[in-house]
Amino acid sequence: MSNKSTNPKGTKDYGPSELLSLRFIINKIRNVFISFGYSEIETPSIEKRATLYEKYGDEGDKFIFNIINSGEKVKKADIKSLSAGKLNQFVSSISEKGLRFDLTVPLARFVAQHFNEIIFPFKRFQIQKVWRSDRPQRGRFQEFTQCDVDAIGSNSLFLEYEMIQIYSKVFRELGLKDVKIKINHRQILNSIANKIGISDSFNEFIVLIDKRDKIGSEKLRNLLRNDLNIKDSHIDYLSELFDYSGKFSDLINKITNEFSDALSIKATEEINKIYEMMENSDELVEIEFDLSLARGLNYYTGIIYEVVAPGSSIGSLGGGGRYSDLTKSFGVDNLSGIGISFGLERIHLLMDEKNLFPSLKVLSNDILIINFDINFVNEIEQIIYGLRDLGRNVFVFPDSIKISKQFSFADKNKFNFVIIYGQEEKDRGSIKIRILDNGSEKLFKLKNFVHEFSKM
Amino acid sequence: MSNKSTNPKGTKDYGPSELLSLRFIINKIRNVFISFGYSEIETPSIEKRATLYEKYGDEGDKFIFNIINSGEKVKKADIKSLSAGKLNQFVSSISEKGLRFDLTVPLARFVAQHFNEIIFPFKRFQIQKVWRSDRPQRGRFQEFTQCDVDAIGSNSLFLEYEMIQIYSKVFRELGLKDVKIKINHRQILNSIANKIGISDSFNEFIVLIDKRDKIGSEKLRNLLRNDLNIKDSHIDYLSELFDYSGKFSDLINKITNEFSDALSIKATEEINKIYEMMENSDELVEIEFDLSLARGLNYYTGIIYEVVAPGSSIGSLGGGGRYSDLTKSFGVDNLSGIGISFGLERIHLLMDEKNLFPSLKVLSNDILIINFDINFVNEIEQIIYGLRDLGRNVFVFPDSIKISKQFSFADKNKFNFVIIYGQEEKDRGSIKIRILDNGSEKLFKLKNFVHEFSKM
Question: Which domains occur in chain B, in start order?
């Protein structure tokens, strides 16, 4: 088998039974989204370069998959840029489109484009694939599914709380009650950056902090020192905030005392208000206010979230936050949005690890028709249609091979029933059914078989 | 709004209500597939270049979307090929992956890769997106969804018939009873090509015939004359076969008489047997044996199908056929396959044109909670959870704006109920509900509201 090809690294094939468990998760998530009043939309996988770029920040942009212009258009390749090492410029000379990196930027584009048809506040969800040319490893895919729920056109802090409700509801329904939602506020990170004098490098600061979980505290210290020239006393200060493990109220008081500008006050008030709303509820998973939570993407402006599974090597199960200005880059001002995302494949991995899937049955493997000869199958065609009309799923074995082999196929695929109609049955005007569960057989008159079967 | 960006040409955004009609079609198709005993799989959108290329023929290959290698890898761009005008070679120097062009080649790759896990015959279906860099126009998309059903590992002619059953069942269930399934046999086209002495250019011949519906008979004549050097008498002969409008039996007799080699005899026997099986059934849509049906892709070897909607400008609604050798190119011999595809977006367009969608309701727009203030909403949180547990979908209006505006939002979005809980209701320990259908209102005790609502 010399030419054997495989699926690309960082992608995954789903066979029938594995797809069922994936669908199990999707259905739970979709139903929660709907139950919270969100409506589903879909956008194309491909977006124009102008839509995708300069929204995520350098860190995002560099992982976008670019599509080569078709046909003669590649002749416009900017070879000078290539030889000058300006790879982005070279790529942009032969690529007008790319695969979406997330569902948030396409949502902002959708909202701006269809602005006049949408009734705001617009609560939408979207369950579709995204692509990132990140280095693949366990739990990190190049093609994966995001399940996003967003509300656009409202500043209400209730939505910040609702996102926590949605995360909690989904993970509890999936049996993952021990996940933890980390929250932070971009404005507080801003205030911290100001305080240590690196507000000009805020985006780089965010990208570095975001790597903390991957690289560890020590390496982060080095990066902060070397890349951003932060002095040691400030790094110590950051470590103190990032590694804080005391009570929420002490940490929020510390922040409140240290930052007294209007934006910081508003941010701490928002965090406080969210905690206040949570007090009434026993439906939530654990929440942790974590100043080291940064989220790598540029567009967040307020509260940010990330869901982690303590004790698991699988990365974050989802994340999100408030983005106040995202539609502005598509020409629509003053339209704040907030949203969270669930990483389907990672949740799937984690649930698989924890054996959380109920035994799911491949629906199509219900009734198998033994094939003695095409003509026999053809004769009972009306019966087969009748069974399907009853909602039963009927698999006609295509080849008239040895009967024992056909039965073995039925066993391996865990069919419920096997229907036997050959010369013997035909001569007697009957049809035989075997119940694979217990091996028992029943003989029916051909005429009223479907009716009799429906009563079984 | 200067920066307004739009979705790329040849792609489509689906808002909530349009997505519902798309889902309506998908569910019908999926349920038919399952009822015929087929199991669902999913494969990645991205495949390796080696998987995709040289499977479809030049005509397919040239419409594959290529993805540019990430990061430093583009430095390997083969500039010499570019300046020599060898664009394919240039593209292959900077692209190792592409977007799948159909679901059949990925299926063949899947079957070869997972050969040892699969129990044959493998009846699978797959409903996923495919991409083609074809020039976009009405009904021709660059990103679209194929709904494919295939059986691998059996030569049984019953499957040729089953594909007709599946097409018929789906289109009848969708209310498109007047579609027509054209069928032909690649071997007969082969025999015809042999007869007129162009067997060496068979693939080019197929590609040209495939264009007939688009370009018309007259232009096809010119192409056959100029591109393939077919002489006029042979072109007349082809026209006679292609434009044949008489009885099936006369045409098949003509073919049987003219071609007496073993392969042709087998092919006509297959066509005859399929017609024989169809005789017993009144569940099928119209079938037409059409010698001008070619299908543009290289991998077909036997019976081929195409579904058209007479009187519509939308192109074919689906197609497929028998491919005996496709897994061979992935290192697995002797594994014949057959399958058909449904073009989702085109079916959607056609059904929309014919007003065939039932009135579908956006599920999430069920109960709206009026927001007098976040605190009031927070107080009835347990009630909201209770309603959701009943299976109801509850949309909390996020902002405490003017009540009339919130009601207007509920009206525009066709909510069923509005729940009112403000100071007045709080003071009375009650909760009010308005039924938007008739404008009536009901007052409930706060305590047992969920229970009372469940009985409404």
Answer: 16-64+101-353 (3.30.930.10), 367-455 (3.40.50.800)
